Amino acid sequence: TWTTEGVAEELVERVREQIGDAHVICGLSGGVDxxxxxxxxxxxxxxxxxxxxxxxxxLRAGEAEQVExxxxxxxxxxxxxxxxxxxxxxxxxxxxxxxxxxxxxxREFIRVFEQAAREVVGEAESDGHPVKFLVxxxxxxxxxxxxxxxxxxxxxxxxxxxxxxxxxxxxLIEPLRTLFKDExxxxxxxxxxxxxxxxxxxxxxxxxxxxxxxxxxxERLEILRAADLIVREELTAAELDSAIWQCPVVLLAxxxxxxxxxDGRTYGHPIVLRPVSSEDAMTADxxxxxxxxxxxxxxxxxxxxxxxxxVVLDITSKPPGTIEWE
Length: 326
Ligand code: XMP
Description:
By secondary structure, the chain is α/β, with parallel strands linked by helices.
């Protein structure tokens, strides 16, 4: 019979056998999958694992801290944090096309991760422990969907890891490849991954970079982060987190509309709420959130986020609309 404890133990044991006394590296994104994968490997081989967290500056409020502080405290992983915010902002300067933004973020990510990986490899080698493996949080649905071929979200082929240069070659350790998402969460809880990380809803790799319609700037990120935090706080307070699949919050940075706040006329930006229900993100329906929750969110955002004077609700299903706006 399937028990979470039994599965976690078995996965840890298998990883331990696979790795032996080699050194391993793992890229942490702050998402559920990479966090649980890293925690499992940590349980299996302890300080033979080094995690790398590339902070691209496109995460939501508090999420970098959850990785840097809470995850490290809970699991004891050796974590190397690279603050690459400025580098990503520079790479995004002037870009407005969604695919160009994705490409820029992806390219920068590889560049920063590669540099960090080289440093980890160098340090481990000088201690006499060559780095042989890279941990990936690939899940069972990723394995099935990709048919073993190239996937968008994960890097699958052995010895040819996602655009890393030829002299950086790792074999993959994919401890979650037999599990579904709910099983990953159960295993994560079992081995002590912090609840805010285990319970996290899907969040795109390019992060807030594709939730600002228009150019991404530090100032715009700040506006979006503030609005997004309010939405998350109110959804949690209303106990709606498990009722919705995810709720992108989008800043229409190039749109302005007239408003009136206090005694003055404002000319601010709209924030779009995109709460959806879904089974697998392939199709989705807009969530019928209670009016009082929507009202609270709207009041708080327009009161607390100075540059925003309008909150609108996206009532489009997928198809025809995608979940994200970009
Ligand atoms: P769409 O917008 O295509 O989103 O309906 C479907 C799911 O995928 C997420 N998403 C992404 N995830 N990189 C990611 O890792 C991306 O570029 C990306 N674009 C969308 C989205 O949040 C939703 O869960």
